[in-house]
Amino acid sequence: MFPYRNGWTTKKVGWFACGNLAERAPNLAAKIQGKPDNNAIATFIKANAEHFSSVGTRVVMGRGIRAADTADSQHVAVVNKEFVKQMFKPGENPIGQHFGWDEKAAGDWEIVGVVENTAY
User: Quick check: is 45 in a domain?
Assistant: First the structure.
């Protein structure tokens, strides 16, 4: 837990990779569409279609980033298992769920895959 935004306390929930994410700060608020705000922060990495295979990270649900995931396509994200554990109820499927940086943008990114936890 660490302080964030006007004295709120946040929790680090894991990371996500996006194939079409513009350059931003490495830690961003994460808000799942239709769920209450849990003051979560996630680290992002910008990835391409070869990213997970090149670093030896296994996709455990859904799919990884594809070459077709570009700045002009639907915004997609692959999250790690820790992100799923912190942001969803046990057994809840994250694939197809949407998230963003705040309530207004909570539908901006669609989760298309989950990868194992790994250190970067």
Answer: yes
* Listed residue (110, 118, 35) closest to 81, CA to CA: 118
Cα(106)–Cα(32) distance, rounded to whole angstroms?
A: 6
Query: What pLDDT, in 10s, does the model give residues 59-105?
Result: 999 999 888 887 788 888 888 888 898 889 999 999 999 988 777 77
Residue 19 domain-assigned? yes
First to last CA, the chain: 20
Task: Give pTM, 2 decimals.
Answer: 0.79
| Containing structural domain, residue 33 | 2-115
Largest CA distance in the chain: 40
- Note whether residue 120 is domain-resident: no
